[in-house]
From TrEMBL:
InterPro entries, per the entry: Sig_transdc_resp-reg_C-effctor, Tscrpt_reg_LuxR_C, WH-like_DNA-bd_sf
PROSITE patterns: HTH_LUXR_1, HTH_LUXR_2
SMART domains according to UniProt: HTH_LUXR
Stored Pfam families: GerE
Organism this protein belongs to: Sphingomonas psychrolutea
Domain of life: Bacteria
This protein's UniProt keywords: DNA-binding, Transcription, Transcription regulation
Ranges of residues in domain HTH luxR-type: 173-238
This protein's name: HTH luxR-type domain-containing protein
Length: 241
């Protein structure tokens, strides 16, 4: 469930698995559907579902997600991924979407490990959700595909990803996920109205020190330095109307 980082990748349900099996002729034999917190790509996923991964690969996906070079490039804005699918090739030394990006020793090690797990070619795209979340749909192939093969695969897998989202999303909790707690959302809503710490404490029926703790926590989660930045970012992440 969302609210705590998953310890592993949950399996697709039977119907989703059958639908995906029909697409394996496109060359992609692995798929991972992930719920993420927008603006916090360096943290582990909020929830993850997959098919075609070995148990070791599934555990590694979660255990090293915060160090995944693709996820970190996305968080730094080096790869402008959105609702339109992008494709990339993992050479074991770099990713084709950002060939000049400087990789750490750990990044390169992870790319080589993924290549050994059959992650040579990838397709990924996002589906925006409410309250600071999005779904990330990721497909992996062990083959180096031609442009024509990729074009054919992208269209079919893009449609499957949205069908998969329609199956999984209704079963997820409707809250904002792991990024902000419900009490932190209460605090930022009051901050947006211009209330100070003492006024927020009185409104919420908690102590001033507790309000300060919540505000420091949400500053850290939103990666901001002051109240104006926090309110602006909360609007961007759909925590505020």
């Amino acid at each position: 469930m969302i609210g705590h980082a998953p310890t592993t990748v949950a399996a697709f349900d039977d119907q989703s698995a059958r639908l995906f099996q029909d697409l394996r002729g496109l060359g992609f034999d692995k798929c991972v559907y992930v719920i993420e917190a927008r603006g916090a790509a360096a943290i582990v996923p909020l929830a993850a579902f997959g098919i075609g991964l070995t148990e070791a690969h599934a555990n590694e996906f979660i255990g090293r997600a915060a160090h995944d070079p693709l996820r970190r490039m996305l968080s730094r804005g080096e790869i402008p991924i959105g609702s339109v699918p992008i494709t990339y090739e993992n050479t074991g030394r770099a990713l084709s979407v950002a060939p000049d990006s400087k990789l750490s020793v750990g990044d390169a090690s992870l790319l080589r490990w993924c290549l050994a797990q059959g992650v040579r070619t990838g397709i990924t795209f996002r589906i925006l959700m409410t309250k600071g979340r999005y779904a990330s749909v990721n497909y992996y192939s062990a083959a180096q595909l031609t442009p024509a093969e990729l074009d054919a695969a992208v269209q079919a897998l893009f449609l499957f990803g949205h069908r998969l989202h329609e199956r999984i999303e209704p079963s997820l909790p409707s809250g904002p996920g792991h990024l902000l707690s419900s009490r932190e959302v209460d605090c930022i809503e009051q901050m947006a109205l211009g209330l100070g710490n003492r006024e927020i404490a009185e409104t919420l029926g908690i102590s001033v020190d507790t309000v300060k703790d919540h505000i420091q926590s949400l500053f850290h989660k939103l990666d901001v330095a002051n109240r104006a930045q926090a309110v602006s970012r909360a609007h961007m992440l759909a925590y505020l109307d």
